[in-house]
Amino acid sequence: MVKQLTAKIGPSILNSDLASLYDESQKLMDSGADYLHLDVMDGHFVPNLTFGHPIVKCLRNKIKNAFFETHMMVSKPEQWIEPMADAGVNQYTFHVEPVKDVASVCRKVQEAGMKVGIALKPATPVDVVTDYVDMADMILVMTVEPGFGGQKFLDNMMDKVKWLRKNYPTLDIEVDGGVGPTTIHACAEAGANMIVSGTAVTKSEDPEKVISSLRNTVNAELTKNL
Prior knowledge:
Helix content: 25-40%
Distance between the termini: 14 Å
Shape: globular
Oligomer: single chain
């Protein structure tokens, strides 16, 4: 049976009020989010610093059923696999750039019971995934430089998304960075089905409406390609 792709909207809480992380996260789930995108930064791989597995575990203790994806913008992603699995993470998305043996990290993530996400910075060629895409549940194409929210969307990254969709028709493809109502059409047309949206959702007066609009746009494109 051929896997049926669906639109999944995962708001990033990076630009939420982190002092009210649970309330902000629950609000996003109540607004129709399909998953939560948790940005983990170590101050080394990217210049910013956010939070680690203790915070994620606290969040999981309050939000039992949500799908948690951690976007590991860290220099040593292998170091945090077990702690994040223990914290209740569902999908562990790490960057290829600092990793020497990507396949080994993929296996460790799988063995820890989590789904594998592989992330690419804007300067990283998309075809690097060919050696290990069969081990990945999802490929993340960064549409800004990782590390800070609120950046301008890089529309030339859509060529990467198109290449992935052409070569891997049933793959979950995620985009992250500057994605919102004004850029979602480009993402959907290129073939992305997992949408990370930060400020467009978290700073909106009606996050439910924004999430629904993003989902409808992606599903419309997926339906065209059936």
